[in-house]
Fold Glycosyltransferase RgtA/B/C/D-like domain-containing protein.
Amino acid sequence: MKRLKFLLFIFAFFFPFFCGMRGFFACDQSIVFDGGYRLLRGQIPYRDFCLPFGPVVLWIQAAFFIIFGVNYFAYLLHAAISNLVFTMVSFSLLRRACRDDLAVTVGTLLSSIFFYPQFGTPWFEQTGFFFSLLSLYLLWDDRFPFVAGLFQSLSILSKQNAGLLMLILLLPIAKRRYRFLLGLGTGLLIFAIWLLIFSSWTGFVRSVYDIPRTIGWERIGYLFNPARVRWILIGSPLRILVLIVSTISLVKGSEWPIPGLIAYHYFFALITDNQPENCLPYLGIIIGITIAHLLRRWRWSYLTLVLILMVLGMRSAYRRDVQDIFTHTTTFTPIGIGPWRPLRWGEPTPIWQLQVKRSDVIRLYHYLKGEDRPFFIFPDFTIFYGMVGKPPPQPLLFFDPGLTYYRSQNQVIDRMVLSALKRNRVELVIIEKISYFGTPKRMEDFPLTFRFVRERYRPEREFGIFIVLRRVR
């Protein structure tokens, strides 16, 4: 078993690293990279830039940048090490829960496939799932409930819905509940003190509550959308198989928290904009414990379904199905420049009717390095700030209407962006002709900023979808 455990952990480290370097979806994968880099440059969440979630994943990414430098390797390493630790904790939890070598092996392997490989790079939800697992692990045998509460506070401060939903599940299994809640309250209190002393309470309320609350209510409405429910339950062969094995786990009478974990997966998938494949972190624990409880005549039929599920999960991660744009990508070519290594660029990488070509990214990178001037890029490829080594000059971590800025009456945020561009003396503006949520539409949300850009900047170069404008002196 020791040799097999070692092989499982080796796989848990290298598989997400391999999946994560296949392609780049700027709309999602720039966010944590840019956020970690902002912290490295001395910017403070909520005070210096808007962030609709907790800052924990950005703190972790900044630590990786400090140790390994600002590059894509450090980005992938964060996800790979997180997946390894998650898998090791899942293994230990399964050993405690069932003491069945086959069940532990299968469950651990599934955990390593369905935690980070599906997304590939650091993300808010995965960080929330990670700390909730640590909390569940400690509460399983009623060990260190105060520390479990601290971990759960970190989960909430990674992604609110991920952490709060798991809190509902954990409370019934916390035998010394007051100590667990004391740890939770202590973690949140420390964060509140940090906000008051180092950050901004007003900025936090605006970023985390005031701006995104409309989207929050809309996503609760997803629960009553039959089309979305069908899409999550039976939208692909993998989802159908997950539904079947989850149903078997329920029917065969698994004890709490297994029914709660199954409900957590589906409820979380319903109220988030993630693909369902990215919302199954505890599938390995569910299936491992189910295998241990099944009678022999049921076990091998169930294992056959699980084996197929395992193959489909690996295929989904390998093909990057969670990021919609890689559906027709046929090759992944090493980008081969400086801090971008070991990223492999997907060909094609389509954004609606246009493509983002590897050669255009390389040419823009070399141009910006050669210019060595402050620049502003809009809206999605904010990863360029860290790659080029220039500070992000405006206060939005990403441009998402209703999430990071108001859908209507956005004058306050518009003025904040315009003021920051002037204050930081931005020399170059790079505008993406097309982006996943639409460039022209999002430019209309910032009329003051882009009127200033039209008046003060003139087009100078084009690199595929990227238009470079230079300030007129």
